[in-house]
Amino acid sequence: MPRPVALALYTPEWTDRAAALIAELWAAAPGGFVAVHHIGSTAVPGLAAKPVVDLLGEADSLAGIEAARAALEGLGWRWRGENGVAGRRYLTRDDPATGERTAHLHVHAAGDRMIAWHLAFRDRLRAEPETAAAYAREKARCAALHPGDSGAYAACKKAWTDGVAAEAVRGASARSCHSRR
Fold first, then answer.
1. One MF term from GO for this chain (predicted)?
2. Is the full-model pTM beyond 0.85?
3. Most buried in the list 28, 56, 58, 138, measured by CB within 10 Å?
4. Is the pLDDT confidence value at 122 over 60?
């Protein structure tokens, strides 16, 4: 059943919640992660978002994360497999008292191109207030069109996010090139 879409004004509490979840993940899967990042709209100061913290885990290998599955599930994470994205392990976490979704965890093997996509998109929004404002408008438009269906909401904004992320990844790659040619 689709979840409703309710955008909330930014709160620094999202950053605190992300930090607590990241500490929990490090403890639950020692050696399983190379890095864990706070991504998505809740990681961008000033940006309205669904109040669901998105995290990106970089794993040495997906097998290592799969080995930590029971420990992660013991913390309340629900294992959803690839969930439509090849090479990803996707987990969700809900508030046990309310059933409301509180967090998403996207895990990819270190070096997977989706890591660069997520980080470049987040960093572009953080660095460019005008891009973040345009994204806020796109999110509001899609939320108005699909208030009762988070899947349709995500699909609605996909072309916008893919375009900005692709541009951000190209920009990041160009800046990191140190060729002598």
1. transferase activity
2. yes
3. 56
4. yes
